[in-house]
Amino acid sequence: MAMTNSGMRWLNGLRACAFSFAVASALSVPAWPACAASTDGNPALVSQVASHLAQAKGVRAQFTQRQTLAAMKQPLVSTGSLLFLRERGVIWRIDTPYKATYVITDAGVAEINANGQRVTTHSAQGTRGVAQVSKMMRAMLGGDLSALYSQFDVQAEGSAAHWRLQLTPNQPQLAQSIKGLQMSGGDFLQSLRIALANGDTTQLEFSKSEAVSEPAVAERSLLGAP
Amino acid sequence: MDLLQHRSAKTAWGMRAAWLLLALVAVLYCGWRFSGPSPLQTNLLALLPATEADPVAEKAVDTLASALGDRTVFLVTSHDDAHAKAAAKQLGASLQKSGAFASVTAEVPPFDLSQIAALYLPYRFGLLTPADRAAIAGSKAPDAVLRDVLAQRIYSPLRGGLTTSLADDPFGWLEHWLGNLPLATSNLELEDGLLVSHQDAHQDGHQGTATSVLIVATLPGSAYETKTQHAVLAALSRGERSLKQAFPDVSVARTGAVFYAESARSASEREVHLIGLASLVGIALLMMWVFRSPRLLLLGFVSTALGIVCALAVTLLVFGKLHLLTLVFGASLIGEAVDYSIQYFVVYLGAGRNWDARRGARAVRPALSVALATSLLGYAILTWVPFPALKQIACFAMAGIVTAFASVMWLLPALLPHAPKRSPRRLFERSARLLRVWHRLIGGKRAWIVAVLLLIVAIPGWLRLTSDDDVHLLIQRDPSLVAQEDKVRNAVGIDNSAQFFVVRGETPELVLERAEALGAKLDALGGTSNGVGGYQSVAQFVPSAQQQNKDRALLAQHVFDDTAALRATLLQAGFKDEVADAWIAAEKNAQTKPQALMTVDQWLAAPWSQPYRHLWLGQVDTATKVYAAVVIPQGVTPRNEAALIATARSVPGVAFVDKAASVSKLFGAYRVDSGWWLGGALTLVLILLIVRYARQQPHSGHAAKEAPLAHRVRGGIAVTLPVLLAVGVTLAVFGYARVPLNLFNWLALMLVLGVGANYAVFLREGCMRADSDLGAVWTGVLLSAATTLLSFGMLGMSAMPALKSFGATLALGIAVSVLLAPIGMPSESRRAA
């Protein structure tokens, strides 16, 4: 039913979208214009970030994910690395506590299990949702923020050297599942916090971010043909 | 003398009174019928016969058509996002206010996704996807597998569309299962409470992303009611007008059965008026030109009007409803019904001073009777074809011409007691001369030469004949409406297929099992070139009890056999004690209540299942207690259709339905049969005419008693020859013109036989009459032909392809049979002095 489409799509691609956006924005562009101390130029700051992202081709980083879930005794921690390429997609590689690789491209989502086999366990709706989200992301990174603003209210604080973004869903459908996103960083994205409506939270910390323009040979085959 | 006159005057008045009464009754009946709920049927689908041998499949077609037919969809598009949304809200509000719709949905209330999961949650231990089933059943080291599944669920950066909470569904099996529901099959998103689609579009000269907002409305009544159609169109035009003022860059596309129905209806009404008016005016002009008497014109119209009114009344009585197609055809019947009165008038004008109305009627009776018989035969054959519309047309036509005949025989003599004052002598003389010349050219022995010549010319045409039975050729849709529908389809992204599977069974459980079997086969086809790319089936929403029990047993055997180990796995992954315990206890609970399986009724009761409820037909036939469901494949192409039909046959209780193809096939079958029927009808007509004209004794010179067979049949053959050649020439013309024939062309040929024979009959009868004026007779024949040609020719210009084929064939056939009618004249020696 069409009604559930948007919510599902967003839930499905949410983390991928948020991570990718956050990660891409971490690309350091040395000289940002000196409107540094703006505290209420929210749209301006956000669009600055986005326009600088238009120059980013790809990012490689390490992440630590910490999930605080109601059903769990303790917060769950996983670590790994990721590769984000604007034109191609995202490779999300988990190293601990278990090994798995997820590849998100316009064509869909695939999971590569420990044996290197491609396993697609995700439903048709899910993959289509993610594909749409990644397409939207590319538009966003191309400077078109309309899709982002259509789903979120964005508040930016701080300066170019130390910024914080708060995203609150403005669609009731989305608000049923997500309470908000918080991102902060400086030259790079440092942390991302996702708060779900049911009380669970996910905290992501990024480190060792560096810019890349081309994937490694092995990764190229994962991402498929451009 | 006085007494005779007095008595005849009394009978004349009695006759007039009787007919007046009949006319009043008929008019009152029609008036009463039309004043109530309109008996007019405008639904073109009602024309089509039941094609499925299976009444269940037929009901499935009807149910689907009505489920989807009451929905009207509007698409408000603009390059400006805000404008599109505001315009859509405004249009939705104005449509709602107009009261023409039962409900208008522009703004969608926020939908709680968890409702869907909530429905299935109690039954989650019986719901597994095939992949999970295989993983659980085939695992050698179940603990390791379970740990992996848990890890995937917890640490994966992506979550599928519908999510379940970790506490309720730790391994994510229910979430996977929910992900397989065929829910999101469109390009629509929910933004600001509106259903929106973003697409690259070219509009008003600029390229870019256009935002389209969907408004769905339902009708308060049937899409085929005139009242509903008018209300909808009025509301829409008002709404669009105000929209244009506020947002000039916004365009609105519409689709829905109501628009097609309205377009078909107004086109038909236009044609009824056009054909009727043109026929009347043309006939009036012709008759005035020939007869120069307004009185005769009036009487002719009285007779014809009586025929039409009685035809209307009889058809309404017999069928209860009148289809618009019948009316359109009926309008063209005017030209044929007036032929009978024309023949009478010809005798009237030819009689001069010694005119006796009754004698005139007696004189013309043989001609009219034979003509009536052949026409009735032609129309009667139409009733054999199981198309409701054709039966109606046949009934209408037969009632009409019988009444016209009766009125000519009994009413007109009462209205024409006195001799004619004038007679178009000169016209008759000229036409007599024309007839003589023409007869010398083609009549008598030369008829055979003409026949052979025509055959030689026609045969290559016959060899080029092709046929095309596609039902889409016969029922045409307004192209602008089709374009708008395509726009809406592209925006929404639904591939609405008119072909689907019908699954039946004695119990709902059996239907679900069969639907699952069919689904499995369709999935198997999925990877190949015969794949359908997805399908919608009730079994996807509600698995059969058999399947649910199997999955439960599987879980019990592989996962819950060792609850201690399971609990340890969960705790090791990080679950809280109470969460793990609660989940295991829930499963134990479900095990002890084997009745608690998911059923179709529960699914139907859920509010969110509303858009999919048409998939379950329920109990179709209370007599035989048959349940049925529908499986709609997404992409049916001519390429994979054969594979789908084979798949349907391989599963018991499943039928593949393709209404359009079935009708086309039926048309084709009947088209072939109608060739044989035409031959049979020809034979009948031949025999009838031979019998009629065999009484002609050969000229004295031979022994009167020993007339050989050849002589006896010569009359009948000569009269049939024109119409026979007419049929042949018509077929040849279609062949040369490369127009493919369809069923309606062949049915029209039956009528060519029935109606075209009239003219040769009129001519021959006229010649055989004692004191006939050949010129008058020929004028009468030509005039009759002209009026019929005018009416049927106008029918040939109809926008409805079925009627167009009818009219064109008829006009051509009749034209040729009139031209060749002099072949049927008796030779000079046989004409009465």
Radius of gyration of chain A: 17 Å
**Which class do the helix and strand fractions of chain B yield?**
alpha+beta
Q: What is the total tally of β strands of chain A?
A: 11
Strand order of the largest sheet of chain A: 6-5-4-3-2-1-11-10-9-8-7
Structural class of chain A: alpha+beta
N to C succession of SSEs of chain A = HHEEEEEEHHEEHEEEH
Q: What is the total tally of β strands of chain B?
A: 13
Strand content of chain A: 35-45%
Which stretches of chain B of 5+ consecutive residues score pLDDT under 50? 700-704, 829-833
Largest sheet of chain B: 6 strands, antiparallel
Distance between the termini of chain B: 30 Å
How many DSSP helices of chain A? Answer: 6
Largest interface comes to: A-B, 53 and 51 residues
Give a structural overview.
The complex is a heterodimer of chains A (226) and B (833). Chain A has 226 residues and is an alpha+beta fold. Chain A has helices at residues 2-25, 42-53, 124-141, 146-151, 172-175, 217-223; strands at residues 58-68, 76-85, 89-96, 100-105, 108-112, 118-119, 152-158, 163-169, 178-185, 189-196, 201-211. Chain A has an eleven-stranded antiparallel beta sheet, sandwiched between helices. In chain A, a hairpin with a 7-residue loop joins strand 1 and strand 2 (76-85). Helix content of chain B is 64%, strand content 9%. Mean pLDDT of chain B is 83; it is low at 700-704 and 829-833. At the A-B interface, helix 1, strand 4, helix 3 and helix 4 of A face helix 6 and strand 4 of B.
